Amino acid sequence: MSDLITDAALFERLKQFSFVPGRHVSSSHGNLKKLSRGTGGEFSDYRNYGIGDEIKYIDWNIYARSNKLFSKVFHEEGNMDVHLLLDVSKSMDFGKKNKLRYAKNIMMILAYIGITNNHNVQFSAFADKSFMTMPLGHNIDIFGHFLESLEDLHPQGITQLNQSILSYLHEQKPSGLLFIVSDFLDEEGYEHGLTHLAHSPLHVCCLQLLCEEENDPKISYTDNLQDIESNRLINFNLTRSTCQKYMKVFKQHIEQFKTFCLLQNILYLNLSTTIPVDQFIINLVQQGICKRK
C-alpha cells in the first residue's frame, strides 16, 4: 500500500495555491521581491516621477492635491528557495494513523506547490545528525523521482533536533522559506537549533505533527511501556489518574513550544493525523503563509 495520496484531483486543487513569504525572506538569487517602477506585481509605494517612467503609472490623484508627479512602485516577484525538512526518526513511526505516512504527504504537497510556482525546492530527511538531501529545483519532471524517494524513506534513529538543525544550517547555508515537519518530542529539547534558525535569513514554519494516541491516550493497564526510539522499557501503568496527569503535562509542552516559536518569530502549526491531510493547506492560508492565486 502506498504511503502517498497521489490523486490527480488533489494536484489540480494544489495548483490554486502559492506561498506568501515574510518580508525578510530572500533567495540565493537575491531578494525575493525587488522594487520596480511599473511592470506590474504587488503595489508597494510611491517615488518621484523620473525620466523613463511610464506615464500610466503616475498617480494623478496625488498630482491633483500636491501639484507634484509621483510614480507607483511595485514589488516584482522572483523565485524563492524553499527548504523542506522531514523528521524520519523512529518516534515518527507511531499511531494507528501513522505520523510518518502523514508527514510524507505534507512534504509532497509543499514540494508540489513550490515547484509549480517556479521556486527552488530542496527536500531533506533527518534522523540523528544524518541527512538525505534531494534538490528538486523548480523542475516538475523530477517530481516523480521525488515521490519514489519519499516512498522509500523508513523510520530510523533517534530524534536529535538541535544537532540536525545546526548541521543543516552549516552544510546548506540556506535562505528563503523553510518548513520543518516533526513531532518535536526530543528529550534534549529544540530551543538551541530553532534559535539559530530564527536568526538565519529564513522564514521558518514549524509543523508539529501528533497522532490521536499522543493527544488523547486511552487507559491501558500494562506493566511496561517501551520507548520506540531507544527500546528502553519503562515500568508504567496508564490508569485514569496517570492519563490525566499526562494530558496536563503534554498540553503544557505544546503551549510552551507554541510560545517559544511566537517569541522567535517562527510560524507554528499544530497538526493531527486525524485531520485529512489536504486540509492542512487551509491552515497555511489562514496563517498567511499560502494564498489562493
From TrEMBL:
InterPro entries with a match to the protein in the record: DUF58, vWFA_dom_sf
Record Gene3D superfamilies: von Willebrand factor, type A domain (3.40.50.410)
Coiled coil: none
Residue ranges constituting the DUF58 domain according to the UniProt record: 45-253
The protein's name: DUF58 domain-containing protein
Organism: Candidatus Scalindua brodae
Taxonomic path: Bacteria, Pseudomonadati, Planctomycetota, Candidatus Brocadiia, Candidatus Brocadiales
